[in-house]
């Protein structure tokens, strides 16, 4: 059993457990459930940098990235740095994430929050809205086209935006209606190896009309400039920020330097 198969196996058990403790009727009574969400897609469109800054403490491939930081400080610093949105890992078993991190963040920042998790059940979409998410991630590699269509329709019905994450050309065929953003992930979720050329290879194959964002291995402003010329509008950055002693300060400097580069190149 590879890492991804283990993640899905544990996720299924976790969902069944949560359904009993927090049934959908209870989730729908959350203070966050009826709030008007912030648009991640609009923020990315209106930004000249499009940085989505991620709060991630750990990963299966890297182990502990940073366990000495407070989510409250990091997300506020990310917002002040000019991030277009914030991504928060909520998977606990493999990433040391917590849904509580997203709830806390929602009370602190006024920019879109993406729930980053392995969504395989409609329950998780309702749950995402109940904890304060503005957008969810659907991973093409673990879902059928039928599931993507159904999940994205449900998400849009409760005012959540949807990112469909793809990793190869085959998964492009899973692009369907009700998607706001297409994310191209440079990381192979089977072996967790990063190949930064994946974004470049797939960029021209994405249908027109979708906002494109690049994920994984994004740590160089010159590479971002290269991706922008290929039509990418957003860039999800986690590990590069989180491995620093002060992720927010590093993010701030990164965005400042990127703005200068974009301005000088008139992109």
Order of helices and strands: HHHEEEHEHHEHEHEEHEHEHH
Indicate the mean pLDDT: 95
Tell me what portion of residues adopts beta-strand conformation.
15-25%
Look at the helices and sheets and give the structural class: alpha/beta
Compute the number of helices.
Answer: 12
Gyration radius from CA atoms, angstroms? 17 Å
Give the terminus-to-terminus CA distance.
Answer: 45 Å
**Low-confidence stretches at least 5 residues in length (pLDDT < 50)?**
none
- Strand order across the largest sheet: 1-4-5-6-7-8-9-10
Overall 3D geometry? globular
The major beta sheet can be summarized as: 8 strands, parallel, barrel
Helix content, binned percent: 40-55%
- State the total count of DSSP E strands: 10
């Amino acid at each position: 059993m590879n890492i991804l198969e283990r993640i899905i196996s544990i996720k299924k058990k976790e969902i069944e457990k949560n359904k009993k403790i927090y049934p959908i009727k209870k989730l729908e009574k959350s203070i966050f459930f009826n709030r008007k969400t912030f648009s991640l897609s609009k923020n990315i469109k209106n930004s000249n940098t499009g940085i989505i800054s991620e709060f991630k403490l750990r990963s299966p491939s890297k182990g502990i990235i940073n366990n000495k930081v407070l989510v409250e400080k990091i997300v506020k610093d990310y917002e002040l740095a000019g991030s277009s949105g914030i991504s928060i890992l909520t998977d606990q078993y493999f990433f040391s994430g917590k849904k509580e991190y997203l709830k806390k963040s929602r009370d602190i920042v006024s920019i879109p929050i993406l729930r980053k998790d392995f969504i395989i059940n409609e329950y998780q979409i309702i749950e995402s809205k109940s904890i304060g998410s503005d957008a969810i991630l659907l991973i093409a590699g673990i879902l059928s086209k039928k599931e993507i269509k159904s999940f994205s329709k449900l998400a849009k019905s409760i005012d959540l935006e949807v990112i469909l994450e793809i990793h190869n050309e085959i998964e492009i065929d899973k692009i369907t209606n009700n998607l706001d953003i297409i994310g191209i992930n440079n990381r192979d979720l089977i072996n967790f190896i990063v190949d930064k050329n994946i974004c470049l290879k797939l960029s021209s194959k994405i249908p027109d009309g979708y906002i494109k964002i690049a994920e994984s291995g994004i740590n160089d402003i010159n590479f971002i400039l290269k991706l922008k010329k290929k039509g990418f509008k957003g860039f999800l950055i986690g590990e590069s920020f989180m491995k620093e002693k002060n992720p927010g300060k590093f993010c701030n400097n990164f965005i400042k330097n990127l703005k200068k580069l974009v301005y000088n190149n008139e992109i």
